[in-house]
Amino acid sequence: MAAHLRQVLAWRALAYAPNIDARDRAAVLWALGLLNSTPILDF
Fold first, then answer.
1. Of 1, 3, 12, 43, which residue is most buried, by most CB within 10 angstroms?
2. Residues 1-43: tens digit of each pLDDT
3. What whole-number distance in Å separates Cα of residue 5 and Cα of residue 20?
């Protein structure tokens, strides 16, 4: 379970990255969906 949490945190960090492009952000959101995680995005 710890590995799952680390992966979710890594993808969330990418979702918040200011220099990520739209295609990469879409991939991050897709990955979060597969990990059954809800991104907390406040753009």
1. 12
2. 688 788 888 888 998 899 999 999 999 988 888 776 555 666 5
3. 22
Q: Say which residues have a Cβ less than 8 Å from residue 19's Cβ, sequence separation at least 6.
A: none
pTM for the model: 0.64
**Closest to 12 in 3D by CA, of 29, 42, 26:** 29
SS (H, E, C) 4-19: HHHHHHHHHHHHHCCC
Q: Which residue has the tokens 């952000």?
A: 25
